[in-house]
From TrEMBL:
Pfam families: Abhydrolase_1 (PF00561). PANTHER family: 2-SUCCINYL-6-HYDROXY-2,4-CYCLOHEXADIENE-1-CARBOXYLATE SYNTHASE, PROLYL AMINOPEPTIDASE. This is Alpha/beta-hydrolase. The lineage of its organism: Eukaryota, Fungi, Dikarya, Ascomycota, Pezizomycotina. Residues 2-159 form the AB hydrolase-1 domain.
């Protein structure tokens, strides 16, 4: 069983720290946690390592090789090496894709199904045939719903978030431990956690800590700033920031699609500039954005700042090859078992259902009782349902 982590741009956890490890071993599998290229122990990408490639144009060309199609080729090279001396019936392997790992799994089914015995995904049915704009219109809608849930759970944060925005603006930004300066817009990207189990609570905790610091000291303390930076920065996972929109691109450029879509929505009008501070709790709440990546993030965080020109060139690139083979998926013979979450903030449920209809031999466990990170948050529950799909056929 090969595990493909979400992302893009995140390495696998150490096996002993991954809650699914023991469950998979108990099912009789050997387990391989494969760091996708550019992550973990697989030649990780940073501004410095990328700089070894040469000028900006060489760096951009290098980064074009880090999408799902290339990851599938890596997987096949590893599989063939590991199984070289295996009997023919054992040369195929199983794969498990979480989130973006599921996107990679569908590319695998498209281009190298001969290497696969079975496929499992959690929150990982990609938006096949959708433009980046269509994807972000859907995910912004779900993000708005999660904001409403947040402020319903923590109504006191309506006033608190406005007050923090005013504080940040009045200080000309917050100096972060890494050296970056956090703006109001940067602060309002905290909502990327809203789609996770416990995500509403984690954002509230940061808001509460910031508010408490200002009340006690009239400034935000370093421990709180460190926690805030940890929740916001992609400096240790630059692939996510630089290539995030490209995972939705086939034969076209993204052109910072999330930024363009968000600016057109009333709830996220702050993307066009810092919002005005509220004078009372009756003011409309400030909505946080989700997992979207915006150009201004490359002005805030030091590592991303070094890659701003590279990221902009990637956003303008229109020559992306196709990531999925619709003909192959329509005649797919490899069993696909997918856990799909109705309230997924990152992988829109309606779009996921369109994808499921494109893939032969796709069976789903669909629930509104789990969120996107159920594999970590409710490991045994989601794995039980996936293996029930596999072991209890309805026909």
């Amino acid at each position: 069983m090969v595990y493909l982590q979400g992302g893009p741009g995140f390495g696998c956890p150490p096996p002993q720290e991954a809650p699914m490890t023991q469950v998979i071993l108990d099912k009789g599998y050997q387990m391989l946690y494969l760091d996708q290229r550019g992550t973990g122990l697989s030649t990780p990408i940073s501004a410095a390592t990328l700089g070894l490639q040469g000028d900006v144009h060489r760096q951009v060309d290098y980064l074009k090789l880090f999408r799902a199609d290339s990851i599938v080729k890596d997987c096949e090279a590893v599989r063939k090496t590991l199984t070289e001396d295996y009997p023919s019936e054992l040369k195929k392997w199983s794969i498990f894709g979480q989130s973006y790992g599921g996107f990679v799994a569908l590319s695998y089914l498209s281009f190298a199904p001969h290497g696969l015995r079975e496929v499992f995904t959690t929150g990982g049915l990609p938006p096949i045939g959708q433009t980046p704009e269509q994807v972000y219109r859907a995910t912004f809608r779900k993000c708005a719903e999660r904001n409403k849930a947040y402020y319903k759970k923590y109504p006191e944060d309506i006033d608190a978030v406005h007050g923090l925005a005013f504080h940040i603006k009045s200080k000309g930004g917050l100096q972060l431990p890494s050296g970056g300066v956090l703006t109001v817009r940067g602060f309002l990207t905290l909502g990327r956690n809203f789609g996770m189990h416990g995500g509403l609570d984690s954002v509230h905790d940061l808001v509460f800590r910031m508010k408490r610091d200002i009340h006690q000291f009239q400034f935000i303390t370093r421990p709180t700033l460190s926690a805030l930076e940890s929740a916001l920065s992609f400096d240790d996972n630059v692939i996510y920031a630089v290539l995030h929109e490209s995972i939705y691109c086939e034969n076209g450029a993204s052109k910072w699609a999330a930024d363009r879509v968000g600016r057109s929505l009333r709830e996220f009008a702050w993307l066009s500039g810092a919002p005005q501070s509220a004078s009372s709790v009756s003011e409309a709440p400030l909505f946080f954005s989700g997992e979207m990546i915006f150009p201004f993030l490359f002005d805030i965080f030091p590592e991303l700042e070094k890659l701003a020109v590279v990221a902009d060139d990637i956003a303008k690139y229109s020559g992306w090859p196709e990531l999925y083979d619709l003909f192959q998926l329509a005649r797919n013979e490899v069993p696909l078992y997918a856990a799909t979450f109705i309230d997924d903030m990152y992988v829109d449920f309606a779009i996921a259902q369109q994808t499921a209809r494109l893939v032969k031999n796709c069976r789903q466990y669909i629930t509104n009782g789990m969120y996107h990170n159920a594999l970590r948050g409710k490991t045994e529950d989601v794995l039980k349902e996936l293996f029930t799909l596999r072991d209890d056929p309805i026909d």
